From TrEMBL:
Domain of life assignment: Bacteria
Protein EC: 3.5.1.68
Pfam families per UniProt: FGase (PF05013)
Keywords: Hydrolase
Keyword Hydrolase in annotation: yes
GO molecular function, one term: N-formylglutamate deformylase activity
Protein name, per record: N-formylglutamate deformylase
Length: 268
């Protein structure tokens, strides 16, 4: 029996946590086409669902179980680039974040693969996420999608220098009420020993931009964390550092609690 495409934990909080990139499941017929570099699955958002586990009572969680090399659940299904003119990876990545090939010669994804994987992976995940957003909005009159991500702090192919620890994305304020953005930013700016940025290199992926419609009562915000904040090393085996993570979790909890407290005042 094949693995489920997504996992859901239903709660009654106005906040929904989305995890499009923590999955590591790759069907055998797809894994067979990956080269040795691709099989490392280096671009996973390692351990992020564990990092957020238990931080907020009654929160809803929607997590993709498939790896982004199968298809990227945080990319436009039409293949439109999130960052025109900048290096990035597509709907089904041809390379890793370092620009290195991940598929065996001649076995990269084609148009038929895109159609099939949109149908079998991308669409079911987003149908589940959309349904949970509607369920939560029906309860509260408002729903807040907090999309959870991480990435290595040094990736010259994608950005110069070191990425800040906290990277808040709201598509320049379009995807959520300014009070949500400010609540997250306030915690980040006062988190001792960390740095952060609002709408820097990462302004929110397709998920945040697609669902974030404040005028409808649906708000979305993305948090991209530098993996140096919670991994022992940003290299295989990408091991979780419990001491680092515990320090970070204090601030992540603070962000979620503050956003949850704002929710009642956002009803249309």
């Amino acid at each position: 029996m094949s693995a489920p495409v997504f996992e859901i934990t239903r709660g009654t909080s106005p906040i929904i946590l989305g995890f499009p990139h923590t999955g590591t499941e790759v069907p055998p017929e797809i894994a067979d086409r990956l080269n040795d570099n691709g099989r490392i699955l280096a671009d996973t958002d390692w351990h992020i669902h564990h990092l957020y586990d238990g931080l907020l009572d009654n929160v809803t969680v929607v997590r993709a179980t498939f790896h982004r090399y199968v298809i990227d659940a945080n990319r436009d299904p039409q293949g439109v680039s999130l960052y025109p003119g900048q290096n990035t990876t597509g709907l089904i990545p041809q390379t890793d974040f370092d620009g290195k090939a991940i598929w065996k010669d001649g076995q990269g994804p084609d148009e038929a693969d895109i159609v099939a994987r949109l149908r079998d992976f991308h669409a079911p995940y987003h149908a589940a996420l959309a349904a949970e957003i509607e369920r939560v909005r029906a309860i509260h009159g408002v729903a807040i999608l907090y999309d959870c991500h991480s990435i290595r702090s040094h990736i010259p192919f994608l950005f110069e220098g070191k990425l800040p620890d906290f990277n808040i994305g709201t598509d320049m304020g379009k995807t959520c009420d300014s009070a949500i953005e400010q609540a997250a930013l306030t915690v980040v700016e006062t988190a001792e020993g960390y740095d952060g940025v609002l709408n820097g290199r990462f302004k929110g992926g397709w998920t945040t931009r697609h669902y974030g419609r404040p005028d409808t009562g649906v708000h979305a915000i993305q948090m991209e964390l530098a993996q140096s904040t919670h991994l022992q090393a940003e290299a295989p085996p990408f091991a979780y550092d419990a001491a680092k993570a515990d320090r970070l979790r204090v601030h992540l909890k603070n962000i979620l609690v503050r956003i949850e407290q704002i929710a009642p005042g956002l009803k249309r």
